[in-house]
Amino acid sequence: MDIFFVISGFVMMITAGPFMRVPHGWRYFAMRRIVRIVPMYWIATTAKIVALLILPGVALRSSLDPQHVLFSYLFLPSCNDVGAVEPVMGVGWTLTFEMFFYAVFAIALLLRVTPLLFVGSVMVALTIWGQLSPEGTSPWAVYLDPVTLYFVVGVVVAVLVRKGLTRWLVALSVACLCVAGVLALAGEMDWSRSAPFRFFVIVGLVAITVLAEPLLRRALPKQLLFFGDASYSIYLFHPLVAPMVPIALAILGVPVVWLSVVGAIVWALVVTSVIYALVERRLVRLGRRLPYAGRIPEG
User: Fold this and answer.
1) Which of 19, 24, 94, 165 has its CA at a distance of 20 to 30 angstroms from the CA of residue 264?
2) What is the pTM of this model?
């Protein structure tokens, strides 16, 4: 999921211009993010809770602690019944970080300071704090994880794009992939264990993708662009709907692995696309009527 934090930082910074130019830009930024993220996440979390209450034996972890549920709705880190720091909706752990990133970025807009300087300082300071502190058990320690630096990388890439520094972006991608190649030759290719290798590969690939964006935009079919728009609903609801296919096949006595996998993917894409079209888009449209959630005034 590291790459999604880079993308998050990039998107946040590349679209920050209008918020930086108007009074109360931080309010527009915060409200638009809330409208975009919160309603669908609350619906997904509620659906998961209802499923656990109706079919507690289906899920591996079916305990529902009231504080854990509350913290899940508030995007705050908390431990589940087995001690893992994740919300009721497992995939929501990334949104715990995402909301933290939004808060830090909104503070930068409120203070009218350079987002890169402020966000970078906060994330680096927290990372150093985490490295110097003894390992603890507090759920809040997740914010000290070096993974937050990926968000800063995304902001850096966006700044290079905004300033038209394409040569620097090319240099960044080449340098990162060269370092990754050296690490690979040295045997540091374990994706899960070699953080430096993973870092340089991800940053290099993101930089290349950003450089190729004009070409990709023309080449990608509209169907894929639709799935891109629906990606949030797909991300939130696929854990709820995809398992329905293998369960149904098992009940029917057709436990074919490849059919379960393909069927689960197709079913998840269909159902989550419908959720996006009928629910998410309408909720976002309604949410845009709230104060500071609509059109940003001209600066």
Assistant:
1) 94
2) 0.89
The answer to whether position 184 is within a domain reads no
Residue 219, classified by CB atoms within 10 Å of its CB into exposed (0-12), middle (13-18) or buried (19+), is: exposed
SS3 call for 193: coil
Query: Cα 236 to chain center, whole Å?
Result: 11
Using N-to-C axis directions, what is the helix angle for 149-162 and 115-132, rounded to 10°? 160
Q: How many of the other CB atoms lie within 10 Å of CB of 9?
A: 29
* 43: containing domain: 2-163
Cβ(91)–Cβ(239) under 8 Å? yes
Q: Is the pLDDT of residue 298 over 80?
A: no
- In which residue are the tokens 């970025």 written? 105
Sign (positive or negative) of CA dihedral 93, 96, 102, 104? negative
DSSP tag of 164: T
With beta carbons less than 8 A apart as the criterion, state whether 3 and 153 touch.
no
- How many Å apart are CA 278 and CA 219, to the nearest integer? 28
Domain total in the chain: 1
Each residue's pLDDT tens digit, 127-163: 999 988 877 668 898 999 999 999 999 999 999 988 8
Q: Where are the alpha helices (DSSP H) in the chain?
A: 2-14, 17-21, 25-54, 66-73, 93-111, 115-132, 149-162, 166-185, 195-211, 213-219, 222-229, 231-241, 244-251, 257-275, 281-287
